[in-house]
Amino acid sequence: MTTEIDYYEILGCERTADHGTIKSAYRKLAMKYHPDRNAGCKDSEAKFKAVSEAYDCLKDPQKRAAYDRFGHAAFQNGGMGGGAGAGAQDFGAFSDIFESVFGEFMGGGRGGGQRQARRGADLRYDMEISLEDAFNGRSTEITVDVSGQCDACQGSGAAPGTAARTCQTCGGAGAVRAQQGFFVVERACPTCHGAGQVIAEPCGECRGEGRVDKTKTLTVNIPPGVDDGTRIRLNGEGEAGARGAPAGDLYIFLHIKRHALFEREGTTLHARAPISFTTAALGGEIEIPGIDGNPVPIKIAAGTQSGREVRQRGGGMPVLQGRGRGDMVVHLEVEMPRKLTAKQRELLEAFRETETGEECPQSTGFFAKIKQAMGG
Predict the structure, then answer these.
(1) Is there a single domain that holds both residue 14 and residue 43?
(2) What is the span of the domain harbouring residue 283?
(3) What would the mean pLDDT of 94-109 be, rounded to a whole number?
(4) Where is the domain boundary, 47, 71, 106?
(5) What region holds the J domain (predicted)?
């Protein structure tokens, strides 16, 4: 009785591993046990065949689903994937390594052309908005210059009334192969340049590209709570793909203008507010404008020192795609008068005559320490 080794165990992967993890594990093992690196070693040859068989199954979503459900029984008695000789399986599997390493350089992978039509490029647009716009959210329009689908040929690249035909050189695959020893070298078809089709009569508007330069006006919806660097994606609004291939995406990068009053830290807004020394000493109340446009009363406790922070709950920025708002933190700065009237000076002189040192314990203690340090 033959014991079948689990495919995941062969590749050293968990059953929940994604395709990228499985492919990476296969490449390492296939390179390690490949016959060209282990000439005449039967054990390495057997391991290479086992690794290739495991990857041939797990790389295909349908085969993998069947294997996860039924195990090796899914491929017995003419099941899925049966019928291929071991030699062909090994050779095709190692071709996947070559494709993964050199595929982009060669202009497309196996089965390229129309089946792997290259989508258009993603584009970037930088937008500057105010902090108020970030707070409230807004809808705005932007104008971008981008290549779009050619209206004359509907993106096909062929002149109206004509159509592209399958490339006879590559049979529509977009790539041709040539065997060089053990390797199969794959490169873009020299006739269709990887498109898989040949256009006999190119469209006069786009010259066979299927796309032309256009100016588009797009609506951008900015949600409340966005921060500097927030990225908004507009699907399919990037560069059009050649000859009907899907378009790329347009990414809007937001930049928040510097605000006259507030500095932002996440959902918290910081503001600096100067107060008079009499308000700091006696206490009182000041008002500053909130980010929502409503005045915010700030209570000042008697004896407030410069640098004290007063936190206003819910006075900050909204949570992006969430509920509630952050806080507003007001940093109080006590301002000393620069000019005094004669009456004000008289009153302050009278106040100084009544000082006992308990009014300002920090300064009194500081000078007492200096006096002690200086030897009394």
Answers:
(1) yes
(2) 262-373
(3) 42
(4) 106
(5) 6-71
